[in-house]
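User: Run a structure prediction on this.
Assistant: Running it now.
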Amino acid sequence: MEKIRPYQRSVYYYETDKMSIMHHSNYIRIFEETRVDFLEQAGMPFPEIEAKGLMMPVLSVSCRYKRPLRFGDTFAVYPLITKFNGTTLELSYIVRDRATGEICAEGTSSHCFTDNSMKPVRTRANFPEIYGIFAEYAGYEITD
């Protein structure tokens, strides 16, 4: 199992609002960026998953805002697979300010696995190599 690093970057100017804080909608985008980065680090980039005919549509997403990030702040996002049964997947995300370590936001996203026609797929039976990687990283705590 490869060690996974937290996803890190700075707040871009276009992501801020009139108060110079990151607009709340951008946290959902950051969760997606984190998920894509996590899958790539785990050895299963989205393009490869989709090339096999497997999709991962979002079923739900939530975010709790704790402290705002501002333009130029550097943050890290710590993803965790909290539930995985081969058909559905749930991740949690903790967004921390890199300078202070404070939690800025926490969230979750849930997904299902489908084929290209959006029919549910059991990865254990149909994509055992992908199932194995998700199962391996389920519950894996990411640290700096």
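Helices lie at 25-41, 46-51, 123-126, 128-137.
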